[in-house]
Amino acid sequence: MTKIKTTLTAILCVMLTLSLAGCSESSKGSANQAKEESRLYTAGEYTAQAEGKDGPVKIKVTFSQSEITAIDILEQTETPGLGDEALKTVGEQIKAQQSLSVDTVSGATLSSQAMLTAVEDCIKQAGADPAQLKEGK
């Protein structure tokens, strides 16, 4: 009788182990999924232009696969000391926060909006959805 109980217990343990192994998620699939989720952008440099208060604002945004690494102002004719400073400030905020949900500079709203619009265009070029960055992602 004890031999039957021991055999039955062993069979049940093996069946339980196999059923649990069949229900577990593949670690290889999880690793690939995590890698894809961390890849937000197509890495590279992208340029865009938007209309500021005093003319076009041309920028270059550099992306890694996971973040905005640099925002450079290539050309602009905004008001010295106000519009040009707003472009720098907004660009720095976007990079630091990795978000398009940043404050515009008071008195230089059009310049601030030009920077936001141009960066948004670059984000699209890099293959990402700007709406995610507007949510403060």
TrEMBL record:
Organism: Desulfitobacterium dehalogenans
GO MF terms held by the record: FMN binding
Lineage: Bacteria, Bacillati, Bacillota, Clostridia, Eubacteriales
Cellular component per GO, a single term: membrane
Alphabetical list of InterPro entries matching this protein: FMN-bd
Pfam family, one: FMN_bind
Segment forming the signal sequence: 1-21
Domain FMN-binding: from-to ranges: 52-126
Alphabetically ordered keywords of this record: Signal
Protein name: FMN-binding protein
